[in-house]
Amino acid sequence: MTDAQTSSEQALTDRGSNRSQRPSSQAFRAFIADGWGPRPDGLPERSPAADFAAARRDAVGRLFPGERLVVPAGQLVTRNNDNDYRFRPHSAFAHLTGLGTDQEPDAVLVLHPLDAAAEGPTHEAVLYFRPRAGRDTEEFYADSRYGELWVGVRPSLEEVAAQTGLRTEHIDALADALAKDAGQVQLRVVPSSDAAVEAQVAAVREQAGLAASAAEADAGLAEALSELRLRKDDYEIGQMREAVAATARGFEDIVRNLPRAIEHPRGERVIEGVFGARAREEGNGLGYETIAAAGNHANTLHWINNDGQVRPGQLVLVDAGVEVDSLYTADVTRTLPVDGVFTEPQRRVYLAVLEAADASFARAGQPGVKFRDLHAEAMEVLATRLAEWGMLPGTAEESLAPEGQYHRRWMVHGTSHHLGLDVHDCALARREMYLDAELQPGMVFTIEPGLYFREDDLKVPEELRGIAVRIEDDILVREDGSVENLSAALPRTPEEIEAWMAGLRG
């Protein structure tokens, strides 16, 4: 190969622009920057979430006085070439700013420490982000990731400040802000949130000689932010009510479309698509990948392929939740008879699971109950029923003992998890704050027992093989300690389900 051939080759990193026919003349740049109408006057209203987010920031600030806390929204993630996945900010960022939907890629919330000796707030919160570029810039017309002509009008610093109540700065000011008082101020960043920001923080720490304790410091921040979400405020509870209501409407859509699902070779996809349409029409989208599992597919706990047929005589287990624009999600499961009527074996299994769910719910409303007790209550019921059906090698009591647990063959998951911005919310909380904690007002969690009898499980009576049932509801602990089933509008008993389905299908 000659030197001339080598010099004419295009670098691999430059080939992404090969299909571009972007004008580059100065005349074009002047022309495209001119002749636009004025921007709309005024600023957006303050978000209903803003005051609640401020209180959350104050709470976490009190846990880390004198320290600088860095909470990135995260970056856009490339799907392929110059196409990105739809952006969803990190849940900790959304919780502390009140921003949801696709706001704001590359943004970083920083809580800067104030004088520890002074009374009042412990930190000043500043939001660093990339505001819209001027119409006289190349970004305006040429940047497919951030440009206004490509992705729409981005907000200004003033607009986001009005919306959130936060002081806002250009993202270009972040590096200097992180380096301020380096060596004198502990620096924490939410781990696994934004690699570029974490690299900036690491560089500051290295220069200041603070790198040794970095991982422990960051893990402590992530843990605190997760535990901060264990109890929901009034705004969060309202958002979760909206998510559950939209989810209930999605389940109604599913029932109405079951005849179409039966006719389709991939009827599970029909169910998935119908619910997904509702989630996008009424919210930001799905809170998690929908499980639409007909027949034996429902015995795969996280069945999201959804490529199977839906046949009369089967049960279809649908586990789905709408995520509203604020990013709070519901998480509801209903197990439905495809043709609207339970068979006797299906009803037998369903009633056992319903009894377990009701027992767990009743336990949740008792004083001093711990989160782990909800699971134990459901397991007592299921073990008893399985023993009655002759499926255990001994008694229910023997199975419930730690050295037994035979009943868990048919119920391998937990009965409850916290719910909120994440479908499995508060996942980094300490055991003593989660499993071993007493239920407190503002907690929102699921109750979701199930029984799963695979077709190839020879320890299951033949008439029950291939049946799977899960019933999942979203539960709120009220201020007086009582509990509310947020998803109770969706029928739960076999009789209610059959009547509901008949009414929706006319």
UniProtKB/TrEMBL annotation:
One of its GO terms (cellular component) is cytosol. Residues 1-11, 18-27 have a biased composition (Polar residues). Keywords: Hydrolase, Manganese, Metal-binding. Its cofactor is Mn(2+). It catalyses: Release of any N-terminal amino acid, including proline, that is linked to proline, even from a dipeptide or tripeptide. Gene3D superfamilies: Creatinase/methionine aminopeptidase superfamily, Creatinase/prolidase N-terminal domain. This is Xaa-Pro aminopeptidase. It holds the Pfam family Peptidase_M24. Residues 47-198 form the Aminopeptidase P N-terminal domain. One of its GO terms (molecular function) is metalloaminopeptidase activity. PROSITE patterns: PROLINE_PEPTIDASE (PS00491). SMART domains: AMP_N (SM01011). Residues 1-27 are annotated as: Disordered. GO terms for biological process: proteolysis. It comes from Georgenia thermotolerans. It comes from the Bacteria. Its EC number is 3.4.11.9. Belongs to the peptidase M24B family.
